[in-house]
Write a structure and sequence with these properties.
By secondary structure, this protein is mostly helical. The chain is built from four helices and no strands.
Length: 124
């Protein structure tokens, strides 16, 4: 038995060395995994924070939209009441009232056009 153990001793020592190397590799891999986990955890916090900020912006936008919708509906109803005679009358002004020009400039801005009386007149 002693002889058998003596023969196997170099083999056991080699296996021990391989095991030690394997153990060191495992430790390094665990350290790398720990660093990656901390990084991912930090990024997860950043993503959560950005998501929360986006949700606040979304809620604000939805609130603004809810407030603006009735105003838009009222404006749409008012526009539907404007007759072609009224448009012709406004178009015929050489120097329209200031409030009329202001409203038409707003409409031109809304349409993405140049905000001036000549452009508004041409669009009517």
């Amino acid at each position: 038995m002693k002889e058998y153990l003596k023969k196997k001793q170099p083999e056991l020592e080699e296996l021990n060395k391989e095991l030690a190397v394997s153990l060191e590799v495992s430790k390094v891999e665990k350290e790398i995994a720990d660093v990656e986990e901390r990084t991912v955890s930090g990024e997860s916090e950043i993503v959560k924070e950005k998501t929360d900020q986006a949700n606040v912006l979304k809620e604000d936008a939805e609130s603004d939209l809810r407030k603006a919708e009735p105003i838009m509906q009222d404006a749409k109803k008012a526009v539907e009441k404007v007759s072609s005679n009224a448009i012709t009358e406004i178009k015929g002004f050489k120097a329209p009232p200031e409030k009329c020009v202001m409203v038409l400039e707003c409409i031109m801005l809304f349409l993405g056009k140049k905000a001036d009386w000549d452009t508004a007149k041409a669009e009517m």
